[in-house]
Amino acid sequence: MSCNRNSHSSSIGSPWGCDGRAPWKPLELVAMILGFIVFWPIGLMIVFWKIWQRKHGYEGDMFAFGRMQAARFKETFGAEMGWPSAGERKSADGWRGPGFMRSSGNVAFDDWREGELARLEEERRKLAESERDFAEHIDQLRRAKDREEFDSFMRARKGGGQPPSA
């Protein structure tokens, strides 16, 4: 799918990532379609999520956002519900999430792994920011080229000659 920079849709933003914003992830598309099939308000909620994401420039996907909100909820209400705080270690016999999130049993390794994951997330954020800056730079170059071509056309038109053919 090619992006037409002169079309009206690119000025208001495209959900497919043509304007440098977050595109639909395959899992988000599947979740939206299944949401509409199973219970239509779920699919509608996912569509509204993508609109909100585009409007506010949120760079993560809806699953990262859900994890972030769950962590905020746990920090806020966890003590009242008897959940362990972030500093407390849960017993090894309890389920701790996906494999990369489970405790290895070695606190030093777990701390190192958390630090590395945080570093990688920061690198991902920097890469996304650089990608967005590059897309803006390319857009500026395209606008300058379009302006130059238009000015050339207008000069040729005012000069009484035929516009240059491409």
In short:
By secondary structure, the chain is an all-alpha fold. 62% of the residues lie in helices and 0% in strands.
Would you kindly provide a written description of the structure presented here, covering whatever features stand out?
- Helix 2 (26-38) packs antiparallel against helix 3 (40-56).
- The protein has helices at residues 8-12, 26-38, 40-56, 62-77, 107-158.
- Helices cover 62% and strands 0% of the residues.
- The chain is built from 5 helices and no strands.
- It has a domain at 15-65.
- The radius of gyration is 24 Å and the shape is elongated.
- It has 166 residues and is an all-alpha fold.
Order of helices and strands: HHHHH
Low-confidence sequence ranges: 5-16, 91-96
Oligomer: single chain
Largest sheet: none
Distance between the termini: 25 Å
Structural class: mainly alpha
- What's the number of helices? 5
Question: β content, as a range?
Answer: under 5%
Average predicted local confidence, pLDDT: 75
Described by the principal axes of the CA atoms, the overall outline is: elongated
Helix amount: 55-70%
Total beta strands: 0
Computed over alpha carbons, the radius of gyration is 24 Å
